[in-house]
Structures are given as C-alpha cells and as structure tokens.
Design goal:
Radius of gyration of chain B: 20 Å
CATH architecture of the largest domain in chain B: Orthogonal Bundle
Helix content of chain A: 25-40%
Number of strands of chain B: 7
Structural class of chain A: alpha+beta
Helix content of chain B: 25-40%
CATH topology of the largest domain in chain B: Fumarate Reductase Iron-sulfur Protein, Chain B, domain 2
Shape of chain B: elongated
Number of strands of chain A: 22
Number of domains of chain B: 2
Strand order of the largest sheet of chain B: 2-1-5-3-4
Number of helices of chain B: 8
CATH class of the largest domain in chain B: Mainly Alpha
CATH architecture of the domain at 302-437 in chain A: Alpha-Beta Complex
Largest sheet of chain A: 5 strands, mixed
Order of helices and strands of chain B: EEHEEEEEHHHHHHH
Largest interface: A-B, 81 and 79 residues
CATH superfamily of the domain at 302-437 in chain A: Succinate dehydrogenase/fumarate reductase flavoprotein, catalytic domain
Strand content of chain B: 5-15%
CATH superfamily of the largest domain in chain B: Alpha-helical ferredoxin
Oligomer: heterodimer
Structural class of chain B: alpha+beta
Chain lengths: 673, 247
Amino acid sequence: MSGGARSGPHVRGRETVTETTGPEPGPGYADYRIGDPLVDGKAPDGPIEERWARRRFEAKLVNPANRRKHTVIVVGTGLAGGAAGATLAEQGYRVVQFCYQDSPRRAHSIAAQGGINAAKNYRNDGDSVRRLFYDTVKGGDFRARESNVHRLAEVSVEIIDQCVAQGVPFAREYGGLLDTRSFGGVQVSRTFYARGQTGQQLLLGAYQALSRQIAAGNVEMRPRTEMLDLIVVDGRARGIVARDLVTGRIDTYFADAVVLATGGYGNVFYLSTNAKNSNATAIWRAHRRGAYFANPCFTQIHPTCIPRSGDHQSKLTLMSESLRNDGRIWVPKEPGDTRAPADIPEEERDYYLERIYPSFGNLVPRDIASRAAKNVCDEGRGVGPGGQGVYLDFADAIARLGRDAVEARYGNLFEMYQRITDEDPYRVPMRIYPAIHYTMGGLWVDYDLATTVPGLFAIGEANFSDHGANRLGASALMQGLADGYFVLPATLADFLARHPHDEVPADHPAVTDTVAEVTDRLYLLLSNNGDRSPDSFHRELGELLWDECGMARSETGLRKALERIPALRAEFWRRVRVPGSGASLNQSLEKANRIADYLELAELMCLDALHRAESCGGHFREESQTPDGEAARRDEEFSYAAAWEFTGPGTPPVLHREALEFSYVHPTQRSYA
Amino acid sequence: MKLTLRIWRQSGPEDPGALRTYEVDGITPEMSFLEMLDTLNEELIERGEEPVAFDHDCREGICGACGMVINGEPHGPDRTTTCQLHMRHFEDGATVDIEPWRAAAFPVVKDLVVDRSSFDRVIGSGGYITAPTGSAPEAHATPVPKAAADAAFEHAECIGCGACVAACPNGSAMLFTSAKVVHLNSLPQGAPERETRVLDMVETMDAEGFGGCTNTGMCTTVCPKGIPLSSISTMNREYLRALRKGA
C-alpha cells in the first residue's frame, strides 16, 4: 500500500540526460503471429439477467477502515474518469487523479451533444433492459460481448437517477417529468438530453462531485499533468510516469491500481471531432507495457459533421445525431447539379436514406448513414465545395412544428452551424459530411474492466468493451458513466482485496528504466534539429489513414498504408523540429510526443483492418459486401475480438482471439430497411 | 488576408512580458481565430522560434479552455468563444492586439495561458449537490417544474472560461459564481444545501482574490453563453436570505 509522488529530472537540454538510447522507429510489419486464444475469466455464467448481480456478490470487499490505505491512480477526468474518481473517493479510497487540461471540467466528454440512453421506458413505448441490450448488440454488428452489454443496459437506469440527484438539468415536460427523444438504430424514445449540451451537463455533474472530494482532501488532483508511461513492477501496474506540463518536471506516482480513463484515439486521423489535445499516449504506452489492444480498426465515422472548408482546418465539428429526428437528408438526383438547394424541385431530390431504409429512414445507425453519404458523393451527387457534402434539411420540420419549436430543440446547434459556415440553417439546408468521431477499439478488458496487466484497468472510451464494431448514438455517455460510477468501483475493490502487495522502492530498476525511457524520448524530440513541424507529420498521417483506413478499406489500400507508415515514422524521427525547452510549458513538445505514438498506433490499426477480411459495423472492407453494397459479416471466421500483444517496435504483434458467443441475440445480417 | 498581430509574449510568471509584433499572410475568412494562430505558429516553428502558447482544446465552444483578449475585448468582437470566432470578422490589413486574461486571480503561466484554478476551488467549496453514487432515488420521484428546470439549465451553461472576470474592471467572479449558485439553488435537489452553498462559495471567491461587483455588467456582455446579469442579483438575494437564516 503506497502512494504519492516522487520527483524526477527535468528535461532541459543535452546536459541533464544521461544516455541516449532512443526509440527504435522499427522497420514496420504487414504480418502477425497467432497466439493463444484469450478468455474472459471474470464473466459469470448463468442467466444473463443475473450475471452482474452474481459478480457483485462474489466480489470481495475492502473494509471501509482499510480503504484509505489504498491509493488508486485515475488518469483522465471525463465522464468515466470523473465519475470513477468521485465514487472511489466517496467510498474512502485515496485517489490521485490526472488530466492534461487546466481543469478537470474540460475533458472532451463535455462536447457530447445529443443525449444519454437509458432503459427507463418512461414513454411506455415498449422499451426495456432487454431491448436496450438487444439494440446495442445488434447495433454493434455482433462484435461485442453479451454479458457486458447486458450489464450496461441494466446500469443505464441507475445513471439517470444518479445524475438527476446531482442536479443535472435534463430537459423536462410541463408536468415536471423528464423528456426523451430518439436516436439512430432504435425505434423507441429512450434518449435523455439537456438541449444540445448533454455531455456538458453530465460532465459538470461528475466534475462537481469530484470537486467536492478534492476539497475534502480525498482526491489529490493533478491538472496540467500528462501521463507518459506506465510503471510495471513484477508484472503488476504500480504507477505512472507523468510530466508536469507547466514546469516540465517528470515525476513518478505510485499506487495500488492504475485506472486509465483517457478516452479514444480518434485524433490519430488528425481531423476528427475530438478535442485537439485528446490523445492515445496513455493507452499506447500501456499497450507497450503489456496491455493487449483490442479491435483497433473499429473506428466510428459520424455522418453529420460540418464539412471541411480548407487546408487550414484544425478539427471538425459535429452536428448532433439528434438533428436526424427532424432533419431530412438529401442530395440532387442528378450528378453535377450545382443549383442552389431552393432551386431544386422536390421531385429532383433524392431523400436517399428514406428511400433505401424506409423503416428507419433518417435514423439508421451511424455507420450506415456515413457510408450512404460517401456513396452518393462518390456518384458525383455531393453538394458544396468539392462535392463533399449532403443536405440536412429542416424546411419540413419548420413548416410542421414552427420555427420556435425547432429553435427550442436545436437552437444552440443551429447557432454553432451558422457561426462556422456563415449560413443560416433556418433558411438554407445544412451541409454535412462524415467525420471520425469515436473509437470502439481500445485496451482489451475483461468483465471486471481489467486489462491484461494486473492492476491496470481501462474505462470509458479507452477500453474496447461494449459497442462492438459500431456504437449507437447516446451510448458513449451511458458507457462512460456506467463504468465510472457503478462497474469499476465494484470490480476494483475485488482486485484490491485479493491482491495485497509491498511498496515499490523508488530505485527499483523497472521504475528508473521507465523514467529514463521517457526522458530520453523527450530529449530526442527536443534535440532533433529537423526541419518539419510536428503538425505536418500529423496531417500527413491523418490523410493517409482517412484514405486507406477510413470509411472504406481494401487490401490494396491497407498494404499501401502499412508500407507508408513505417517510412513516415522514420522520417518523423529524422526530421521533426521541436523548438523551446522541456523545462517549461512547451505545447510543441506535447504534440510531438503524442504524434510519435500515433505513428505506431496507426500501423496496428491498419494491420487489424487488413487481418479482419470481413465488413462489420464501422469497419467496411470493400471485398466483403452484399450485392446491394451493405456490410457483409463473416461470422464463421471473424466472430471474435482481436486482442493484439505488443512484441517490440516495428516487429509483428501477436494476435489473441477472444471468441464471442451469442446465446441471447442471434447474429443476423443487420437490416434497417 | 494579411494581418499584423501584436501578441503578448511572456516566458513565465516571473517574466514581465511584452507585446511583440508579427505579420501573417494567407489568412482566409473561413479560418477560426485559433487556426489563424496555428498558421502563425507553424511559421514560427519553421523559423526555429518558439510558438505562441495558448490554451485550447475542444475548438467547438464548449470546453472553456480558450480565451484571449482580442483588441481589448475578451473573446473578441463576436459574442462567442475565441475558438468559434472566425476571421471573417476582421478586415484585410488590420492590426490585431492579442493579450491574456488580465486578473489578479488568474496569474499568467506563459504567453496567453493563465491559471484559472481559482474557479475550481470556488466550485469545490459548494458548487455541487451532495449525492454519493448509488444513493439516488428514482429520477421521477421528484418532478421539477419546467420553469425551474429551464432556469437551472440556463445558468448551468457556463463553461468556466473566465471571460467575465477578464472583462470586469474589478476582476470580479460574481457572474461565474452566481451561475452555479442559481443553477443548483433553482432545483429541489439543491435545496438542502441552499444556504451553505452560497455562503461558502462567496467566501472562497473573495479569498481567491477576485474583486467585488459594482454592477458594471461587462461580464454578461462578453459571456459567450449568455449567462444573464440577473444571475448576480439572484445570488445576492440568496446570500442575504442565507445570512438572515443564520446558516
């Protein structure tokens, strides 16, 4: 039982670093080895409705008086991390928590717009835990674990109760009860929302609970501090190496368990809807230290984002999926039609989602809506600059409901759209185009959310667990809060109770080696007198991935990317230029260090996409489609989660397959027609 | 577009800092203000100079990380966050002054980056409802009148960017603090801590070095989320009420 920080070196310049070994850029790979199958040893069997209750009962507890002797590191303060930190501290554990932002309130969960799902069935429209479970397994294209998804659906109802008690101002009806709306891929109305700022309100709820624990001295909060590596001692995660972003100091922090709540890796694409500084370093460094990385190719492309306006573009902005409740998506019937939308008569418009998928219409799941948009643009029917856009039209909704009602539902989104594009969506249809939004892949975790490194847990978007190959709208908030408030606090206690350990000596070779690797790498970045900015590499990598590992993937394209990425990585280490020093706030250094990890992660993503020669959910392989162009799964060969083991930079990783079994939802070809 | 930028450069808290002049070219009206700064920073890196440090993250107007005083106005001429300000609001050839938030309670960290941790401590002193995980009653057990829910939401929209403090001649955090007080005190769930919340938060706000409020209203005119000035008067009433109750 241990905790606390120990100071290490600054990275200042040449003189402070002992020896430069440097990261090997590695030759690259397009191959892999098959390892032992992976089994989730924690999921209880028995009827699926009883599994979570049984697991909680079988979990060992930590006596309240002993909890303060346990230190838990939580990295990240989004919905998952904020909820976990607050809850663990309330329970009596000592929490040391980290975020790279200046305040825990700014984690990117804050930008989630549309809502959060819960199987409350307040609408009496046929919803139930079983239906939410079913919709999520199906929406994920049968690539998620049934046990996990069922637990998520069960816990969803408690989340709404918890958030209301915290004062989250959800939208309400005149009678004072909670309002709901519909999201893609479902036919019930189970999405709770706070105008277009649901993520903000849920995150502030978690942040406020966390702030209370910080003020009470139960959480030691370290803002502007970024985790750069994981400390593994005798096979167990025992702490992290982190950099104080203001002073540049490298410190080590020790704990009884480490929880990564660091979000997804969508920024590997450079242009995405993620926050600019969201990054994959924590999960990638953990992967390099032994945590398997599962399904990295499962990335979600959100159908409704504002199209890019030029090469200067630094990020993409999402327009909430909730807009598809009332907006109608269309393109001109004829390719090359450049008339203004108002000049295109009704009979010359193609409301293609309503035409192809009559029962779900504009509310088909995200992967399907995105691909359909790509297809019509590829046919030359796209609108706006470069033909990379489709219309999302509110004219009918405004005629039916009135402008005021539309404004009450979507006012802030319309305002945001107008600010960015200088077009008024009340008068002119919005132009939208798909963009990278979320990553279903992440660190492999068992039912307890434990990674393959004992003592290391991953929650929220950082893990791979619940969404299979495609996440349904309004389910990310649900999963982040489920993991943070309810699941992890139960399973972490079991781990702490069963695995006592001794304190780690600060001079343990595993500690000093990890610190040396971190400082050496920063030193290399700073002293590399190159001629290219970190961002220029990031853009190049992003474009390559978008072309070859984006909305449609092919063997030829992926092989090309797998050849190009190692070359780009080598060029990065040869030519990157990072001005300034490591001993103060240096945002270029932060960026460069993150990009170095993207250059490794991208390779694994492409390999995973290459090996999975089927289409499923957000992973569309051109070689595997139905005659009408829908994703064709190949269950006999690929009904498994692909968990990759790191074997060294640029050397072929080892694939461990976790077979997926479906006893409650029978895998079928998804149909939303 | 071509612009002349006069940007506050300060290497650290101890450095006195100064405005430095830079020229940028190739700016387009569609660019956001931060993308304009990205363009400058890329050029600085190419020249081997240190880029301008500024806080930013979501770049969609919700995280509250970004914020700079542009031509004397927090977040610049459009009533939004700096990241949502677009270059179409500037004339070709214009000179633009860019400075950090100026307030005693927000010390400068570097260039345009300031330390706003005082806001977190204000929230930690009472800006929450005590509801430990697992203790919540069924969500529909307490209906909340729509008017109260809407009022709570309107105040809960605050993103904690600090523009209100930067705009205030007194460096006061009354709008920030009152937004949270009114959000939580409007709801039945917030009632049990109604008095202690306002007293503790105001006490912390004062202790953090924020100035007093003299009702100039600058805070609300620059607030990117439109937190109303009435928020402050409501908090004042809550404060007096709490004092009278002797909480």
